[in-house]
Automatic annotation (TrEMBL):
Organism: Sipha flava
Top-level taxon: Eukaryota
GO cellular component assignments: mitochondrial intermembrane space
Gene name as annotated: LOC112692351
Limits of the PRELI/MSF1 domain: 2-170
Protein name, as recorded: PRELI domain-containing protein 1, mitochondrial
PANTHER family, alphabetized: MSF1/PX19 RELATED
Length: 201
């Protein structure tokens, strides 16, 4: 069984700024767990930039993890495709170490936010799998929780880099906040309507 999770992140910067900033994400205050970064391959195919990078990252092991792993360092491969015509930037990230314990694959699509073209939305999906007999569900649950924590740190660190490179985009930030508040209001209205409709009959 595979555990699946998805969410969205918003960056108050233009798509091309986010793509450019992506290659300069490290180091940042939230990336102390990233030990090394290497470009393995890069080429342009059909006007799209294809890249493969290798990262070495570390995470504190839980007690049960010490039974299966002799080091808390793990290798991560990141494959990415930048399409400047469609303005999409897709990344695929997966661990290549300790896959027998837990296999994590993440896909992120960075694209222009339809509701505010001066901002960027990142649509994130993750698949977590474990084949450890008798512990797979517990390991997957642990992996998901750790992914959520690390993902939030990654977004925070990326925004720090973007702010450092381009300055704080206060106009876009305010606009995004207004959009999010309006979405919340609309959702609450719909929820109240549905809840009220239960009593009409």
């Amino acid at each position: 069984m595979v555990k699946f999770f998805e969410n969205k992140s918003f960056f108050p910067f233009k798509w091309d700024q986010v793509v450019h900033g992506f290659w300069h994400r490290y180091p940042n205050p939230e990336s102390k767990h990233v030990l090394s970064e290497d470009i393995l391959h890069r080429e342009v195919i059909d006007s799209k930039l294809h890249s493969v990078r290798l990262f070495t990252k570390t995470n504190k092991l839980p007690k049960w993890g010490e039974r299966f792993m002799n080091s808390n360092d793990v290798k991560i491969v990141e494959e990415s495709i930048v399409d400047p015509k469609k303005k999409t930037f897709v990344t695929y990230t997966r661990n290549i170490g300790y896959t027998s314990v837990m296999d994590v694959t993440e896909k992120v699509i960075y694209k222009v936010n339809d509701e505010n073209p001066n901002t960027t939305v990142a649509e994130r999906s993750v698949w977590i799998e474990s084949n450890v007999y008798g512990m797979s569900r517990a390991i997957q649950a642990f992996g998901l929780q750790r992914f959520k924590v690390n993902s939030a740190k990654a977004v925070k660190g990326f925004n720090y880099v973007l702010n450092t490179m381009y300055g704080t985009n206060t106009t876009s930030s305010s606009s995004m906040l207004i959009q999010q508040k309006q979405k919340l209001k609309d959702t609450l209205k719909q929820s109240n309507y549905k809840a009220g409709s239960l009593y009409v009959h």
